[in-house]
Amino acid sequence: MKKLLTILEQSQSLQEELVALRRCIHQNPELSFKETATAQLAANELKQAGFEVRTGIATTGVVADLGKGKTVAIRADMDALPIEELVDGEFKSKNPGVMHACGHDAHVAMVIGAARILSTRNLPGRVRILMQPAEEDTDAEGKSGGLRFAEAGVLEGASSVIGLHCAPYLPAGKVAVKTGPLTACADSFKLIISGKGGHGAAPERTCDPIVLALNVAQAINQIISRRVSAHEAAVITIGSIQSSSTRANVIPDDVTLLGTIRTFDVNLRDKLAEEVRHACEIAKVLGGDYSIEFEFGYPPVINNPEITAVVRKAACNIIGAENVVDMPHPVMFGEDFSFLSNVVPGSYLLLGTGIPGENIALHTATFKLDEAVLHLGSAILAESALSLMS
Question: Could you give the residue numbers annotated as active site?
Answer without folding.
Answer: 298, 371
